[in-house]
Amino acid sequence: MTDRQLFGVVVRTFGLVFFMFGISATNTIVQTVQLKALYAYDWQKSAWFVVIYFLIALFLLRKADFLVDIFYRPSAPAQVE
To answer: N or C end: fewer C-beta atoms under 10 angstroms in the chain?
Structure first.
């Protein structure tokens, strides 16, 4: 496995980790609010964490190839004098 492929795997792994953070944050909000007292708990501020986690995960998973291309550009050939 080349360094370029390994970096792609790492980027996709971080995307999945952020996706799991989003699921965990969603689960925490549902357990805290218990879908009964939405008016009693200020869950909107916590929901921003869910949105941010899912947006980062979406970006990392969808743009992984683009990020690999940015960080692993082919090097310029050496100039001969």
So the answer is: C
